[in-house]
């Protein structure tokens, strides 16, 4: 999908940054034979220490990491693979069709009732 020259001039590839969750998962996957303390993960991934526990907790809720106080390790590899496929598919669809709009979803739901 083309963009205007004004959008091009303001375009920053870093806007498509990797999320904190992706950084953590990539790091733990690369070191799947080890377990780390949260502060170690934060230091290795560049995720702020005040953000690392919420990120790890959300990943644990999804089965993507496992936790035995005080250590964290990669979780079920099939779950991690499925999450990566989903994220990749969603990004592709956003690129092809544009991002979803919550307002459009709400408007469509109102029309259905």
From TrEMBL:
<protein>
    <submittedName>
        <fullName>TrmB family transcriptional regulator</fullName>
    </submittedName>
</protein>
<dbReference type="Pfam" id="PF09339">
    <property type="entry name" value="HTH_IclR"/>
</dbReference>
<dbReference type="GO" id="GO:0006355">
    <property type="term" value="P:regulation of DNA-templated transcription"/>
</dbReference>
<dbReference type="InterPro" id="IPR036388">
    <property type="entry name" value="WH-like_DNA-bd_sf"/>
</dbReference>
<feature type="domain" description="HTH iclR-type">
    <location>
        <begin position="20"/>
        <end position="67"/>
    </location>
</feature>
<dbReference type="GO" id="GO:0003677">
    <property type="term" value="F:DNA binding"/>
</dbReference>
<dbReference type="InterPro" id="IPR036390">
    <property type="entry name" value="WH_DNA-bd_sf"/>
</dbReference>
<dbReference type="InterPro" id="IPR005471">
    <property type="entry name" value="Tscrpt_reg_IclR_N"/>
</dbReference>
């Amino acid at each position: 999908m083309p963009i205007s020259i004004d959008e091009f001039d303001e375009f920053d590839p870093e806007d498509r940054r990797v999320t904190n969750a992706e950084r953590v998962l990539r790091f733990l996957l690369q070191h799947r034979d080890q377990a780390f303390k949260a502060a170690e993960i934060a230091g290795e991934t560049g995720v702020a220490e005040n953000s690392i526990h919420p990120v790890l907790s959300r990943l644990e809720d999804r089965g993507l990491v496992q936790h035995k106080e005080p250590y964290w390790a990669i979780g079920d590899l099939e779950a991690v693979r499925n999450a990566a496929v989903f994220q990749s598919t969603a990004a592709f669809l956003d690129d092809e069709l544009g991002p979803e709009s919550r307002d459009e979803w709400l408007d469509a739901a109102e029309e259905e009732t």
